[in-house]
Design brief:
By secondary structure, the chain is mainly alpha-helical. It has one domain. The chain is 72% helix and 0% strand. The chain is built from 8 helices and no strands. The chain has helices at residues 2-9, 14-44, 64-102, 112-115, 126-138, 146-160, 171-180, 182-221.
């Protein structure tokens, strides 16, 4: 009876997992494009008129390449928003399933599924903790996939660098950085792309573990 109740409480995850993987791939492509444009800016060199943002609220007209970078950057930001929605939707669903499988209460209450990403300091460990707890309760017989740690390490590099997922500077200031120090920008972009790839692999691994357990539970009830 307990198994039947658990089975009835489960939510399908394949669709949300596919959406999350597709969104992560989209982010990887977007940040690769951003890196390509940064290389093009560095190769072209800063115009003699100086950086786009010349201080005191003065902005010179953008070159064609700089204007194109603004478009690429905006598309990357849009891809990140879509990815965040898709990933959290998947995370919420596998969290509910892990709770249904184990009958235990999750280590982190539901607000942390959202707040864990944005609250300063705790966002350095809670998202990974959420994923690890989901895997531990949903598939206790399996070790935590190594790709979880790769994903989280690369994510942190992309975030705390200040030039990766969370730019503190305006797009014009990032363009100025591309002219003067493109290496740091490219390193942050590489971390974001790596985190997106590792994230996609992680989503597949955790989803597969839940689907295998679901299949085993269905077989046991037959």
């Amino acid at each position: 009876m307990k198994d039947q109740i658990a089975q009835s409480a489960l939510r399908p995850v394949r669709g949300t997992a596919l959406c999350a993987v597709a969104a992560l791939v989209l982010v990887g492509v977007a940040w690769t494009a951003r890196a390509v444009w940064q290389i093009r800016l560095a190769a072209a060199g800063q115009p003699s008129s100086g950086p786009p943002d010349q201080g005191d609220g003065v902005h010179r007209p953008l070159t064609g390449l700089e204007d194109a970078y603004h478009i690429v950057s905006s598309l990357g930001d849009a891809a990140t928003v879509v990815c965040a929605i898709a990933f959290i939707s998947w995370l919420w669903r596998v969290r509910d399933n892990a709770y249904a499988f184990s009958g235990q209460r999750p280590r982190y209450s539901w607000p942390w599924v959202y707040l864990g990403w944005i609250v300063p300091i705790v966002n350095l460990w809670i998202p990974r903790g959420l994923v690890a707890d989901i895997h531990r309760t949903g598939a206790p017989e399996r070790p935590l996939p190594r790709v979880v740690n790769w994903w989280w390490a690369l994510w942190l590099i992309g975030v705390v660098s200040g030039v990766g997922l969370m730019y503190k500077d305006s797009t014009d200031e990032v363009i100025a950085r591309a002219y003067s120090d493109v290496g740091l920008l490219l390193a942050a972009d590489a971390a974001v792309v790596g985190a997106a790839v590792a994230g996609a692999l992680m989503v597949r691994a955790l989803t597969s573990a839940q689907e295998d357990r679901l299949a085993a539970g269905v077989a046991a009830l037959q």
